[in-house]
Specification:
- By secondary structure, this protein is an alpha/beta fold.
- The chain has a single domain, classed as 3-Layer(aba) Sandwich (Rossmann fold), CATH 3.40.50.
- Helices cover 41% and strands 24% of the residues.
- It contains 5 helices and 5 strands; from the N terminus they run E-H-E-H-E-H-E-H-E-H.
- It has a 5-stranded parallel β-sheet, sandwiched between helices.
- It is globular.
Length: 129
């Protein structure tokens, strides 16, 4: 039996969670077992709690949290300093990829950037890595 990949999607917008979960479900290869968990997080600390609880293999992380001055960059820094399990982290936003790269500059864990609707490209990277 193949190991199930755990994907955690973190955002403070329900519509974004639904869209990303739907896109992942459509493009994820059916022969690769996956569990996709979208979690609404209004604060960066909630995102950290969700990471600790779900212990994902793949994290799709928003940059901004509407109710918090902390950002996804703060979450990424926490991952860099505290999360010892191997994890693929992608930042998602409607901003351009260059803007996302700038927003997450200085973090080590964020290697992928899903700007607009580039979910399919990200999945291809995940399943071939």
């Amino acid at each position: 039996m193949a190991v199930r990949v755990k994907v955690l999607i973190v955002s403070d917008l329900g519509s974004v969670l639904d869209r990303l979960q739907g896109r992942l479900s459509i493009f994820w290869p059916p022969e690769k077992p996956v569990k996709i968990t979208p979690v609404y997080c209004a604060w960066a600390d909630e995102a950290i709690e969700a990471i600790q609880e779900y212990r994902p293999d793949i994290l799709i992380l928003t940059y901004a949290f509407r109710k918090d001055e902390k950002t996804g960059k703060d979450v990424a820094r926490w991952i860099d300093e505290n999360y010892r399990k191997p994890i693929l982290v992608a930042a998602h936003s409607d901003d351009t990829e260059d803007e996302l790269r700038e927003l997450f500059s200085g973090t080590q864990c964020v290697k992928y950037f899903i700007a607009g609707d580039r979910v399919r490209d990200f999945i291809e990277n995940c399943v071939t890595t």
